[in-house]
Amino acid sequence: xxxxxYTIFCRFYLLGVRLAALWNPKARLWLEGRKxxxxxxxxxxxxxxxxxxxxxxxxxxWESGVKSPDSELKTPDSRLIWMHCASLGEFEQGRPVxxxxxxxxxGIKILLTFFSPSGYEVRKNYEGADYVxxxxxxxxxxxxxxxxxxxxxxxxxxxxEYWYHYLTALKKRKIPTLLVSGIFRxxxxxxxxxxxxxxxxxxxxxxxxxxxxxxxxxxxxxxxxANVTINGDTRFDRVTQIAQQFAPIPAVEAFCDxxxxxxxxxxxxxxxxxxxxxxxxxxxxRFIIAPHExxxxxxxxIEKLFKHTVRYSVLQKRVPGTVSRDQQVTNxxxxxxxxxxxxxxxxxxxxxxxxxxxSDGVHNVLEAAVYSKPVVHGPVYEKYVEATELVEQxxxxxxxxxxxxxxxxxxxxxxxxxxxxACRQAGDYVHxxxxxxxxxxxxxxxxxxxxx
Length: 452
Description:
Blueprint: H1 2-20, H2 25-32, H3 37-45, E1 80-85, H4 88-104, E2 109-114, H5 117-123, E3 131-134, H6 140-150, E4 154-158, H7 164-172, E5 177-182, H8 196-202, E6 207-210, H9 213-221, E7 228-230, H10 235-244, H11 250-256, E8 261-267, H12 269-280, E9 286-291, H13 296-305, E10 309-311, H14 312-315, E11 332-334, H15 341-344, E12 350-353, H16 366-369, E13 375-377, H17 385-393, E14 396-398, H18 402-414, H19 416-432, H20 436-446
Parallel strand pairs: 1-2, 1-4, 2-3, 4-5, 5-6, 6-7, 8-9, 8-12, 9-11, 10-11, 12-13, 13-14
């Protein structure tokens, strides 16, 4: 009966996407990206449904996002790792594991799948994987065809998104399947009286690496004991890696020019409305706004809120040493591209991470804290362990109003001792929790999941 309702859910989900695609660009991308998807996967990876090797080489196309590997066809002794990420955030979470596996097992093939366009469209040309695709919609037939073609030796699922037919098919085929950086809450169906189907899905994992003791205890309460490890969050490894590989941005460095600077990342309209008054009344400071949605309508909206702005695309074209007519009063830089945020936080005196005024909650606070900078964010953050712990450590400061934001910023800028303590707490928190990636690789090696 539970499976019947799950099937109905999947069908209504697909119907909902088709309707939304009439006006929603992301839904349209989701739908377009799955047209002929299984055929493209078969053509690229080179296996047919009987498990025999195809004679057709891998293909490279903008539409499919596939990159042909150096060896066009799978050899008899080659193995493939399949990593699935719901979206871009989960990809960044899984990326340290994927790249460490690539380094340790250089001959292996890697397939990366996404459910969401926000992950696939950004990373469809990611060079660390041999193949990058959307995940076909979950069904018994799709799971069978997909696994017949892909034939993975190891599967890694990042954080969440539990698709019944794929995961149970992996279990039936006895393919090692790991959950990495899992996080569980009491309100999830796994822990409810009606959650038998969801618990059955969890039984498909060979091992579950979870972030917190609370997650382990919840799993223990429903019978998962021997195959659960508290392993932390691989995002700590990722942000540490990014900070260590920091590359300067000359235009931003010149804009900041030793002024006290607030870098606000992944902002939504609600965040920008909290920040604009402070920016407009502090011309001696610098503000960098990197919005979550980079589209013309939103950029114009930001320019209306902040009185003295320049877009990054304009700033970087200016000849060094020249001064535009309004440059003397320009104190707000609007980032009108994607991909710079993790480096921008380096230039901050104080960071602001957006999302905390929306129902989904604050975005990735670790990207900011890794540079040992205080983090300010909105009030919705409790479901994110790292955000909660960073507040408890004194490295982050939640605010609910523009007046509270002004008070926090003024206190940190005026009190050197308090500022230095917040910086230290933020940096120490991140660096103390690195190492989850190595533990996953050690497990794979000890269990000989890729060498049997």
